[in-house]
From TrEMBL:
One of its GO terms (biological process) is carbohydrate metabolic process. GO terms for molecular function: beta-glucuronidase activity; carbohydrate binding. This is Glycoside hydrolase family 2 catalytic domain-containing protein. Residues 2-96 form the Glycoside hydrolase family 2 catalytic domain. GO terms for cellular component: extracellular space. InterPro entries: GH (IPR017853), Glyco_hydro_2 (IPR006101), Glyco_hydro_2_AS (IPR023232), Glyco_hydro_2_cat (IPR006103). It comes from Timema douglasi (Walking stick). It holds the Pfam family Glyco_hydro_2_C. It comes from the Eukaryota.
Length: 105
């Protein structure tokens, strides 16, 4: 039985499967992945879209937005030196259809 924590054996298996499929990129959907995942992406030549842990950013109150900005800053500071990271994803399914979103995004 394997849990949700980092498992290097499964990490190697996942990269081997992606390589076998002909993939060369992936998105860390819904949250930033463990740094070991990015280290392997650097070594294996994968491109990564690094995503913040914001999902369906629905509210636009000041406290939530400040927390979101802090999470983005933390993610960028942690991952900025990984050559595999080619893009930052601000949120999964952000509610950009809301009028308040225009000023924020």
């Amino acid at each position: 039985m394997r849990g949700k924590g980092l498992d290097n054996v499964l990490l190697v298996r996942d990269y081997n499967l992606m390589t076998w499929l002909g993939a060369n990129s992936f998105r860390t959907s819904h949250y930033p992945y463990a740094e070991e995942t990015l280290l392997m992406a650097d070594q294996e030549g994968f491109m990564v879209i690094d995503e913040s842990p914001a999902c369906s950013l629905d509210g636009f109150d000041v406290i939530l937005l400040e927390e979101h900005k802090a999470m983005l800053q933390e993610m960028v500071l942690r991952d900025k030196n990984h050559p595999s990271v080619i893009m930052w994803s601000l949120a999964n399914e952000p509610r950009t259809d809301k009028p308040e979103a225009e000023d924020y995004f």
